[in-house]
Specification:
Layout lengths: L2 H12 L9 E4 L6 E5 L4 H10 L3 E4 L11 H5 L1 H8 L4 H18 L7 H9 L3 E3 L2 H18 L6 H9 L2 H5 L5 E4 L8 E4 L8 H10 L2 E6 L4 H10 L4 E4 L2 H18 L3 E5 L5
Parallel strand pairs: 2-3, 2-9, 3-4, 6-7, 7-8
Antiparallel strand pairs: 1-4, 5-8
Helix pairs in contact: 1-7, 1-12, 2-6, 4-5, 5-10, 7-8, 7-12, 10-11
Bound molecules: fe (ii) ion (2 copies).
The site of one fe (ii) ion has 3 residues, from helix 12.
């Protein structure tokens, strides 16, 4: 396989047509049989791959941080996701504005070229696949919930449904109820994931305003959670855990590569 074909495997599984702005092939390659896959790849992992004779390295997170010229296109997936569950488009756009502005300012801090240049110097094929794998994870979690949750289900039932995914059983982190409690009725449940990063306080608040009873985030900042706790009553936020949740989307992709005869070694991925 070549790097383009590997990217296409992920796009196909995610149901996406184009490569999102937070995913890219930095050093292309062909005849790939042995892959090192890491949730985060740095210089040391590239060196390790070279030393151990891997044909290519794939990172989940964009190397050096979420730095891309058109990152807003990825983060605006929150808008589509909100609209698809009944949030008015204007309100959804307002909800992403502040955090998107913050992320764009903070991107300037990052040394985004460092790891990519090392891959070029080493001459090792290198790519990252972020949103497609998160979209696979969002769909898996969403399907799991739709299968098990009824009108009378409680937050406890949503957590139990998610825990049937083996990644959540095998993870060191536990699924947390950040807001609300296990005995509350779940109401309308939405998985918010696969849009660059979590939508923070504003996106959560907007979902709640427009009828969502239980929202699922894979992570949230402490400050945003504290703010939600102060301002939101009778709603629930389930936090599933970053690495466990990323792994939910990564494992089907790894399995598909293995089905195509590729030998994959993973770093940091929770077993499925
Ligand atoms: Fe992810
Ligand atoms: Fe992640």
């Amino acid at each position: 396989m070549n790097t383009e074909e590997i990217m296409n495997v992920a796009l196909k599984l995610a149901g996406l047509r184009d490569v999102p702005n937070d995913s890219a092939i930095f050093v292309s390659g062909r005849g790939i049989q042995k892959v090192l896959f890491g949730i985060d790849i740095g210089v040391s992992e590239l060196m390790l791959a070279k030393k151990l004779g891997y044909d290519a390295v794939i990172s989940h997170h964009p190397p050096g941080g979420m730095v891309t010229v058109n990152f807003h296109r990825v983060f605006e997936r929150h808008v589509q996701q909100m609209v698809s569950v009944g949030v008015p488009a204007e309100e959804a756009r307002k909800a992403v504005k502040r955090k998107l502005g913050m992320l764009e300012v903070e991107m300037h801090i990052r040394n985004y070229a460092h790891i990519i240049d090392v891959a070029r110097i080493l001459g090792i094929p290198f790519m990252n696949i972020h949103t497609p794998l998160d979209e696979i994870g969002r769909r898996r979690m969403d399907e799991q919930i739709k299968k098990e949750i009824r009108d009378y289900s409680k937050v406890r039932d949503v957590v139990s449904a998610l825990k049937k995914l083996s990644e959540f059983q095998n993870a060191l982190t536990d699924i947390k109820v950040g807001l609300g409690n296990l005995e509350n009725l779940a109401g309308k449940v939405v998985v918010s994931h696969g849009a660059g990063t979590n939508g923070g306080y504003e996106v959560a608040k907007t979902y709640f305003k427009y009828g969502v009873g239980t929202l699922i985030y894979i992570h949230i900042s402490y400050g945003d959670l504290e703010k939600l706790k102060k301002e939101v009553k009778d709603k629930n936020l389930i936090i599933t855990g970053h690495i466990a949740s990323d792994s939910v989307g990564i494992n089907p992709f790894i399995k598909e590569l293995e089905n195509k005869g590729i030998d994959v070694t993973t770093i940091g991925v929770v077993k499925g």
